Amino acid sequence: MPRDAAEAVTLQHRLRHRVVSDAPLPAPPRLVAGLDVSYESSSAGGRIAGAVVVLHLPDLSIAESVTSIGTCDFPYVPGLLAFREVPILLSALEKLTVTPDVLVCDGYGIAHPRRFGLACFLGVTTGLPAFGVAKTPFVGTFDEVPDERGAFTPLVHEGETVGRALRTQRGVKPVFVSPGHLIDMDDSTGLALRLALRYRLPETTRRADRLSRDALREALSSA
DNA sequence: GCGACAG
DNA sequence: ATCTTGTCGC
Questions:
Q1: CA quadruple A155, A157, A159, A160: dihedral, nearest 10
Q2: How far: A177 CA to C10 C1' (Å)?
Q3: Which cofactor does it need (predicted)?
Q4: Is A7's pLDDT higher than 70?
């Protein structure tokens, strides 16, 4: 891992060419993994907890869940989020005894200043299909999304469609979906929708968020 | 040059 | 991400 921002940007530029973001999934996914990270402090130096929850499709029952505790050694810089979260998430992924068919990341894929967001990084690193579902806008612009579940408008950045603003529930703000690696726009959108049957965010993200939060609380209190 | 800026 | 009160709605 890079030690500073300059090295990180260089690494992103070197790896971005390995990204495949226009291919459909090789087969219908059976196991989908949600990943998330919780922080003790907003800045670097504090403890962090990474969590991965694998769900069965289509029933969304839990297949396996793992966590990993560590320290945050990279500051938050827009565009460099992956360098904060990838290490802890990889250590958690190593504990899995099952191999997910796709990773659902908390953040962006190719909808990124250098087309290499967190989902691209995790996908290229693990060799697994990965896409991102973000809660707030980052790069690009989009037209208002019709207030209907499943409706979406393209997220455009520098003339390219890099993702979609997707309404997962009527009456709630849209989420932002973008392919990361070995998956395309349609499969990413379809999966996000299948995972967000009741709430705004995919069930994978919600479960991983809770698990990482619980794991961090536990780590901070016991030791 | 001035803001905006995933989590 | 995280820190937090009250409030609207099913």
A1: -60
A2: 28
A3: Mg(2+)
A4: yes
Domain boundaries, chain A: 5-222
**How much is the average pLDDT of A194-223?**
95
Mean pLDDT, to the nearest integer, of A181-193? 98
Nucleotides of B under 7 A from a protein CB: 5-7
A135 touches strand B (CB under 7 A): yes
Structural contact between residues A95 and A121, judged by C-beta atoms closer than 8 angstroms: no
Q: What was the pLDDT predicted at A178?
A: 98
**Is A5-222 a domain of CATH 3.30.2170.10?**
yes
A194: burial class by Cβ within 10 Å (0-12, 13-18, 19+)?
A: middle
